[in-house]
Write a structure and sequence with these properties.
Strand content: 15-25%
Distance between the termini: 32 Å
Shape: globular
Order of helices and strands: EEEHHHEHEHEHEEEHEHEEHHHEEHEEH
Number of helices: 13
Mean pLDDT: 96
Strand order of the largest sheet: 4-12-11-10-7-5-6
Number of strands: 16
């Protein structure tokens, strides 16, 4: 057994199967360039973070400018203009109801913050609510708290002794929606239930599983009826991926707590936020220091990352971002028709800019063909990273029809080879 030559341990990588990493030296638009000068089409937005394209000049310039003014300052007891400006702009972009914003630095921490906010809220109100309801097949991150809330399996088995118990409702597959709603109602009646945590409309790492906006609307109504907080994990689905700025917008739902990351800086720097309704902030407001919200990271609201976030929001204000999203979605619908006609493709589906399908039967992350599929696309200079035998595209919004059509062709070829 031989280890790879680099000392770096890469994420979600079995180095015994993938001993060599592909060195990338630059990026522009929807393309990456490797050390050999080969161009790679980034069909998954480099783990779902790139929105307007790699190295967008407006965001890059904002980062340069801010780096020369203020690089970092402790955010406890201090603030700065990039953070204040970002919060002001983001709240204008969101529906009314969310009034407070807490900074962190990744999707996992944004969800951890949300869970702690919910439990702290009820604790400080003198209510014994402490249980969390989640959806089967969900994924909310890789920290201990978010693993506890996600689907159990190969990802989590080594860490089972650390994970806390949650209540799970079934995924609302077509024709089975009522079972999901009935299960939620049973849990919501429990006076110990504090919050429902869900990925709105799309379960990402769980296999790009889609469900109806009507289900989300009904789940929100059940939560409101029983005083249960609704936490929307829009880490992946936010920033236009589903065709609207938030997936919740499709359902007319404003959650009690909202988690955003990934596209927050257009993919240029790590940043995350957790937003909440005013009463959640007010339940922590006190002269009693024990009611402080005890959470932070060293780089909370890093000024350079916040400046990138401001520049990203400026693009949403000044550029035809929605038109680009709509154009990508239209091409994905064309690809859907072509994929659905393939005899070895099942479950082809599109929501906004996201296209997904299975080859060779129902999806499974640990499907035997997963590593071979990854190599198949890499050999064609396509960054497509299957979830087992679930193939999906989640491209930057600058992607052209020709680029996406080439991805659709490659997915059909993969179905011929592996289906």
């Amino acid at each position: 057994m031989t280890a790879h030559s680099s000392p770096i341990w890469h994420p979600f990588t079995q180095h015994a199967l993938f001993p060599q990493m592909r060195p990338i030296v630059s990026g522009a638009g929807a393309w990456l360039t490797d050390a050999a000068g080969e161009q790679v089409f980034d069909a998954i937005s480099s783990w779902w973070v790139v929105t307007h394209g790699h190295c967008h000049p407006h965001i890059v310039q904002a980062i340069r400018d801010q780096a020369g003014r203020l690089d970092q300052v402790i955010f406890a007891g201090h603030t700065h203009e990039p953070a204040e400006h970002f919060a002001e702009k983001l709240l204008k972009q969101l529906p009314d109801g969310l009034t407070r914003l807490f900074f962190s630095d990744s999707g996992s921490t944004a969800v951890e913050v949300a869970i702690k906010m919910a439990l702290g809220h009820f604790r400080h109100r003198g209510e014994a609510r402490h249980r969390l309801v989640v959806m089967e097949n969900g994924y909310h991150g890789d920290t201990v708290g978010t693993m506890s809330a996600g689907e159990r399996g190969a990802f989590t088995q080594p860490y089972d002794p650390l994970l806390y118990t949650v209540d799970r409702i079934p995924f609302p597959a077509p024709g089975q929606e009522q079972a999901t709603l009935d299960a939620l109602e049973r849990f919501a009646r429990n006076p110990d239930t504090a919050a429902l945590l869900v990925e709105p409309l799309v379960l990402g790492a769980g296999g790009m599983l889609f469900y109806s906006p009507n289900v989300l609307t009904e789940m929100a109504a059940i939560c409101a009826r029983y005083g249960v907080l609704l936490i929307a994990d829009e880490v992946m689905t936010g920033w236009g991926r589903t065709g609207r700025f938030l997936a919740c917008d499709h359902a007319g739902v404003v959650p009690d707590i909202l988690c955003l990351s990934k596209g927050i800086t257009g993919g240029h720097l790590p940043l995350a936020v957790t937003l909440c309704r005013e009463q959640i902030f007010q339940s922590h407001w006190s002269t009693d220091r024990r009611r402080t919200f005890f959470h932070s990271s060293s780089y909370t609201a890093n000024p350079i990352a916040c400046a990138a976030g401001v520049a990203n929001l400026e693009l949403w204000e000044t550029e035809p971002v929605q038109a680009c999203i709509d154009a990508v979605a239209a091409v994905q619908m064309q690809g859907l028709a072509r994929l659905a006609a393939h005899p070895k493709v099942t479950g082809a589906r599109v929501l906004g800019t996201i296209l997904a399908a299975e080859i060779g039967g129902p999806g499974s992350y640990m499907a035997a063909d997963g590593p071979a599929l990854l190599r198949f696309f890499a050999e064609r200079n396509l960054l497509i990273r299957p979830l087992g035998n679930t193939l999906y595209l989640l491209p930057p919004y600058c992607s052209t029809a020709a680029e996406l059509s080439a991805c659709h062709d490659a997915m059909r070829e993969a179905a011929d080879a592996f289906g």
